[in-house]
C-alpha cells in the first residue's frame, strides 16, 4: 500500500503510522487524514497486527493539526471537508478493537493534540509540548478534544487548555494523567516498543473487550463530535473565522469587536 503523506510499517505484531510531513510540522490536509484512516483500517483487519503506534516524522512535531497555510489543498479527496475527516479519524482510533499508542516526539498542538488525546496510551519525549490553539486561529472541537479531554484532566484544566491556548510540557501532562510515560527523545520509540511488546502478548479478545468497556462510558461524545463537525463546516466560511485565519497568518492581533 503506497502512501504520500504517511509511512505505514508493520513489525513484531504491530503497525506503525508516521505522519510524514516534517517540513510542515506534520500538519495534515484532507489527503493526510484519508491516508491515516486507510492505514488504520488496514491494521484493523490485519490478523498479524495486535497494536498500532502513531507518531510524527522528525524530532520537531508529532503534529500541529490542520494545515492552515495558503498552500494547503482543502479540495483533496472529492471536496470532503476536513472537519468530517477529522471526526472519522478520531472515531476510527476509538472504535478499532486494538490498542492505539501515540508516541509524541515533539509538538502536539491543535488537531494533533486531539489525536493523541483519543489514543489509548501516550508515550512522550521529554521535549514534547502539548496544547490547543483553536480559538486563536478560528477553529474549535467540542467533542473528543474538549468533552473527552475533560474526562482525563478535569473540567477546569480542560477549559484552561481551550480558553488560554497555552503550551504544556510533557512532565506537566504526566502529572495531569494526559500522558503515560515521559522519556528522553532518543529513547521514545524504544520505550514505546517496550509497552507494545507487553500489549501484543496479551489476549486480543480481552483487550478488545476492555477497550470497548472503557469507550462505553463516553460514547455520547461521538454524537457531540458529529454535531461539532457540522457546526465547524458552517463556521469556517464566516467572516469571523476568516478574520481569525488571516490575523494568524499575518501575525497581527485579530479584530473581533463586531462578533461580540
TrEMBL record:
Cross-referenced CDD domains: crotonase-like
Spell out the Gene3D superfamilies in the cross-references: 2-enoyl-CoA Hydratase, Chain A, domain 1, Lyase 2-enoyl-coa Hydratase, Chain A, domain 2
GO BP, sorted A to Z = menaquinone biosynthetic process
A molecular-function term among this protein's GO annotations: 1,4-dihydroxy-2-naphthoyl-CoA synthase activity
Please give the superkingdom of this protein's source: Bacteria
| Cellular component GO terms, alphabetical | cytosol
List the Pfam families: ECH_1 (PF00378)
Q: Which PROSITE patterns match?
A: ENOYL_COA_HYDRATASE
Q: Which protein family is named in the record?
A: Belongs to the enoyl-CoA hydratase/isomerase family.
Name of the molecule in the record: 1,4-dihydroxy-2-naphthoyl-CoA synthase
What species is given as this protein's source?
Answer: Formimonas warabiya
